[in-house]
Amino acid sequence: MEYNLDAYDRKILALVQQDARMSHAEMGRQIHLSQPSVSERIKRLESTGAIRGYHATINPAVFGYQITAMIRLSTQQGRPYADFVSELPEIIDCYTVTGEDGAVMRVLATDVAHLQRIIDRLNRFGSTSTAIVLTTHVAGKAVSTPTA
Q1: Rounded-to-10 torsion of CA 89, 91, 97, 102
Q2: In angstroms, rounded to a whole number, what is the distance separating the alpha carbons of residues 41 and 68?
């Protein structure tokens, strides 16, 4: 779907990604639009799907997760794993990808033994390859206009 965004829409999207709890009046002050104009634009951006939702970013350690891992799954035709991974709370992202792997997922685990149990359960869908995340350099970066 193509979105016809003007400069104000782009500024609003940047502000919403920076702080989704910012009031429409404050957004208007920052980008020199009235609060009703900002509200109307946000409603339009929501209805067209440009804004897909609002959420809080929670520290996984609050739930006891100490490990983040990336698991690649090589699987047979189709996506027999799709229902399974959507139900497992430890799998927080899962992407169907091109190449040798059928899926790449980001997984949270409380410890190595917990991670091993998750891998064992995924192995029924194909072979897995796991990398434990040591450092995160970029996460949750705001979406913006392409530079190239």
Answers
A1: -90
A2: 37
Element (H, E) at 16: helix 7-18
Is there a domain that residue 81 lies in?
yes
pLDDT value of position 140? 86
Residue 76 near residue 126, CB atoms below 8 Å: yes
Please give the tally of structural domains in the chain: 2
Q: What is the pTM of this model?
A: 0.83
32 plus 85 within the same structural domain: no
For the segment 75-115, what is each residue's pLDDT rounded down to a tens digit? 866 678 888 999 999 999 999 998 888 899 999 999 999 99
Residues 96 and 105 sit within 8 Å (Cβ to Cβ): no
